[in-house]
């Protein structure tokens, strides 16, 4: 079996599908028909070398086609690769200080070319440039999942508060919704987010074992 336990799932600008595999410590790229295009890591071998991962959590795409991977559950680092899979660099070590991570769980790149890393267990988002230089830190929530819509609005799944947050470009809270529960619009450990072309928001829950669709108001 190629994929041991899928975790992060992203679609790039060419509609290729990327998956992080925390079971086999791999990252895969597939075309829209499901053909394997690229495999990063060593299957079944966790590690901290340039060609290894330890339960990688998420993927993001830079403006030049570079790939950023949060190698989060086992390693506290972000790894940078070229589009062809060539290793370009990494940053991050375990800890609570600026630039350190305690489970980098989600990662996105904004329109300004800033790399936003959801430092989950430190209850913050750390923002870096494309080379890993720390720019600023946003605090006050547990960023399990993050996603931008087409207008650049950032949504965050706060798994600790059981809420979905909308933040502005400076990390300030614009809106929040949800509470712990099993009803519609309630959440049990919201884990990851996705936004479709129409602006609808999809929220997956670990505790609730379901996905909810939130329709954009017109």
Please name the defining characteristics of this protein.
218 residues, mainly beta, Neuraminidase, Thrombin, subunit H, four-stranded antiparallel beta sheet, 19 strands
Major sheet size, sense and barrel closure: 4 strands, antiparallel
Broad shape:
globular
What is the terminal separation in angstroms?
A: 44 Å
As a whole number of angstroms, the C-alpha radius of gyration is: 16 Å
Q: What's the number of extended β-strand segments?
A: 19
Determine the structural class based on helices, strands and strand pairing: mainly beta
Strand content: over 45%
The CATH level-2 architecture of the largest domain is identified as 6 Propeller
CATH uppermost class of the largest domain: Mainly Beta
CATH superfamily of the largest domain: TolB, C-terminal domain
Number of structural domains: 2
Low-confidence stretches: none
How much helix, percentage-wise, in residues?
Answer: under 10%
Overall mean pLDDT score? 97
The secondary-structure element order is EEEEEEEEEEEEEEEEEEE
The tally of helices reads 0
And the CATH topology of the largest domain?
Neuraminidase
Instruction: Order the strands across the largest sheet as they lie in space.
Output: 1-2-3-4
